[in-house]
Write a structure and sequence with these properties.
The structure holds two protein chains of two kinds.
Chain A (H helix, E strand, L loop, with lengths): L1 E8 L7 E8 L3 E9 L5 H19 L7 E8 L2 H5 L24 H13 L4 E5 L6 E10 L16 E5 L9 H7 L3 E8 L6 H17 L15 E4 L4 E4 L4 E5 L6 E2 L4 E6 L6 E6 L3 E8 L3 E2 L4 E8 L1
Parallel strand pairs in A: 3-4, 3-5, 5-8, 6-7, 7-9
Antiparallel strand pairs in A: 1-2, 2-4, 6-8, 6-15, 10-17, 11-13, 11-16, 12-15, 13-14, 15-17
Helix pairs in contact in A: 1-5
Chain B lengths: L1 E9 L3 E12 L5 E6 L7 H15 L6 E6 L4 H5 L24 H13 L4 E7 L4 E10 L3 H8 L6 E5 L9 H6 L5 E7 L6 H17 L15 E3 L4 E5 L4 E4 L6 E3 L4 E6 L6 E6 L4 E7 L3 E2 L4 E7 L5
Parallel strand pairs in B: 3-4, 3-5, 5-8, 6-7, 7-9
Antiparallel strand pairs in B: 1-2, 2-4, 6-8, 6-15, 10-17, 11-13, 11-16, 12-15, 13-14, 15-17
Classes of the chains: A alpha/beta, B alpha/beta.
Chain lengths: 310, 311
């Protein structure tokens, strides 16, 4: 294992801003994994730390294939995490919306450029990602639909779902979009929620990455982990249930629950009087893919996303 | 007449309300919309909206057509000094044209676009953020140059920046309206969280000048508006900090600078060192200058429009 500083910058008042990378093996650039780019992506960093620990052990025991090189970047934004902010400490810009970056540009453009330079030319890329609204996802792999021909390889993670989504103009500055435009087969892994390290969701993600490494022959080791057969779906296939009114949100179903048409999914209560304002019901049978997980909801908020049919 | 263009329930005893004031007179069907308050830390538009409301109401007989004033597209942001949309950590000017199947803010964006569509001209007023001070300017996507520059020249601005197209900017309000044929001009001026009355008054004169040229205004207006400098074909040089520290300067924007001229210094408050002399790389008009002193490597310090000889 080689630990090195991939990007460094002086701060006016704080310690140096450093992004560390851990590299295993010295063969061709096989896989890069990046964890948190936002300060609340604690689980994403934690999953990477577990992969670093596993890879160090596997390498020491001779289980790493001879011709590979795997780099893991647990955190690209320790400054924000240390002060409890999601975005960049000074100007609230989002490193993950600055790709491919610009090394003569603004601070977060420079950070993005520094990261991207290190991530270029890997055959595979994995980003531990997060959503912009508070919510809990079923663990899944997500790929942008940019005419790529490697979607089937996402099955090698052995997660229940592979989600194909169409990029919006706003998405064209994300790492995962640019990474695949630059010919790295890129996968975003989602699962759990921000600011928390959750037991099973975290284990699912760690195991899925190890499974992928074994499937790709980067780790020479038998797996005793029974992967499932992934189902590939498109984001447009999810049935979205929005909040008909605002108030206190009481959730009765979680991501990963199988629900049937007519099941009560949650309730919205009056915040002052405690009375019932709305019951939310499933109008399809299917798998709960995403749930809103804040105790409050605004009107129109997508509270549940179900993969299913009527 | 005050109208609501969007209303939705917030969790605790309140509604999100986006409103406009419709000021109408005469027989003309022409409609000009003034929108602002997309970013909650940009306040120049508040003064412009106030003065326009006041002047139009007092001189209604001089108006032939409709002026609609939308002072706060992001009312929760303005009210909480939040640049983006509270609860979502997202820039409102990156979610247009919105969606009815998305969150509350995407629904709001949808209704805003639907309400503005079909106007003869929309003026989308922004300040800078808290970090940069800008001279009064109109920013135009190069693909819309021929349609929008003539309109922008009415606005009494100092500067028109015709910039390159970028895919990410397709999520802005101005793009969403321009692609459906509603001519929309983006105005930038001043600095975040402050109001510069002179800049605002110049724009107000410009708006009345535009209304006059559209045949909608017969009242008092300036005889002649400023002839803005037109910057196109990538004639803007960016000056970014090469060191982290405190940027100190005794100069101001909206002036000519010479190549090699020192426009400020980055210093260390811990050691007393001068870490960097910040020099202009070109001869030109400095139209942007940093207002917030703390800088990191890469922080934007200034933008200079290069004069012809530098091309």
């Amino acid at each position: 294992m080689k630990k090195e500083i991939l990007f460094s910058m002086k701060s006016p008042f704080r310690d140096d801003f450093n992004i560390y990378g851990y590299t295993f093996g010295s063969g061709s650039k096989s896989l890069a994994i990046i964890g948190s780019m936002r300060g609340d992506e604690v689980n994403q960093m934690y999953v990477c730390s577990q992969i670093v620990k596993e890879l160090a052990s596997l390498e020491n025991h001779g289980y790493l294939a001879s011709d590979v090189s795997i780099t893991v970047i647990p955190s690209a934004n320790p400054f924000s995490m240390n002060i409890g902010k999601r975005f960049w400490t000074m100007d609230d810009t989002d490193i993950n919306r600055m790709f491919p970056g610009y090394d003569q540009g603004e601070t977060t453009q420079r950070i993005a450029a520094g990261i991207f330079k290190k991530l270029e030319n890997y055959e595979y890329g994995i980003q531990l990602a997060s959503f912009y609204m508070p919510g809990d996802f079923i663990p899944h792999v997500r790929i942008f639909n940019t005419g790529n021909d490697y979607i089937e390889e996402a099955n090698d993670f052995g997660l229940p779902y592979v989600m194909i989504s169409d990029p919006t103009p706003f998405d064209t500055t994300l790492l995962n979009y640019n990474w695949q435009i630059w010919n790295t087969k890129t996968f975003s892994l989602y699962g759990g929620t921000n600011q928390k390290i959750e037991g099973m969701a975290t284990k699912h993600l760690v195991n899925s990455i190890l499974r992928f490494l074994i499937k790709k022959g980067m780790i020479i080791k038998r797996t005793f982990d029974p992967a499932c057969v992934s189902e590939t779906i498109r984001e447009s296939q999810l049935k979205v249930i929005q909040a008909p009114s605002a108030g206190v949100f009481y959730k009765k179903k979680n991501a990963g629950d199988y629900v049937r048409k007519g099941d009560e999914l949650g309730r919205i209560l009056d915040p002052y009087e405690g009375t019932l304002k709305a019951r939310i019901y499933a109008y399809v049978d299917g798998m709960m893919f995403f749930t809103h997980d804040s105790p409050l909801t605004l009107q129109n908020t997508p509270l549940f996303k179900i993969y299913g049919s009527e | 007449m005050i109208q609501r263009i969007f209303s939705a329930e917030l969790p605790v005893g309140e509604r999100l309300l986006i409103k406009k004031n419709v000021i109408s007179n005469g027989t003309s069907s022409k409609r000009v919309c003034i929108v602002t308050g997309t970013h909650g830390d940009e306040l120049e538009g508040q003064y412009v909206a106030f003065k326009l409301n006041q002047l139009l109401s007092k001189n209604l007989d001089s108006l032939d057509g409709t002026v609609e004033i939308y002072p706060a597209l992001n009312p929760l942001g303005i009210d909480s000094i939040t640049r983006g949309i509270p609860n979502f950590d997202i820039d409102m000017n990156r979610i247009f044209p919105g969606s009815l199947t998305g969150s509350m803010t995407e629904a709001a964006a949808h209704y805003i676009v639907e309400d503005l569509k079909g106007a003869d001209v929309v003026i989308d007023i922004h300040s800078s953020n808290i970090f940069l001070r800008e001279i009064p300017q109109v920013r135009i996507n190069v693909n819309l140059k021929s349609q929008l520059v003539p309109l922008a020249e009415y606005l009494n601005m100092d500067f028109i920046w015709v910039h390159e197209a970028a895919t990410v900017l397709e999520s802005t309000l101005a793009h969403s309206l321009n692609i459906v044929g509603t001519k929309t001009l983006v105005v930038e001026m001043g600095v975040g969280m402050r109001i510069n009355h002179d800049c605002c008054n110049n724009l107000i004169d410009g708006i009345f000048n535009m209304l006059k040229h559209l045949g909608m205004w017969s009242g008092q207006s300036v005889d002649e508006v400023k002839k803005p400098i037109l910057s196109e074909a990538d004639a803007v040089s960016f000056i970014n900090a090469e060191k982290s520290g405190i940027f100190i300067t005794d100069t101001h924007n909206n002036r000519e600078v010479k190549k090699g001229e020192c426009i400020g210094q980055i210093v260390s408050s811990l050691t007393g060192e001068i870490l960097e002399d910040v020099l202009s790389p070109v001869d030109g008009l400095m139209f942007t200058l940093r207002a917030y002193p703390v800088v990191y490597e890469g922080s934007l310090l200034a933008r200079v429009h290069r004069f012809e000889t530098e091309k």
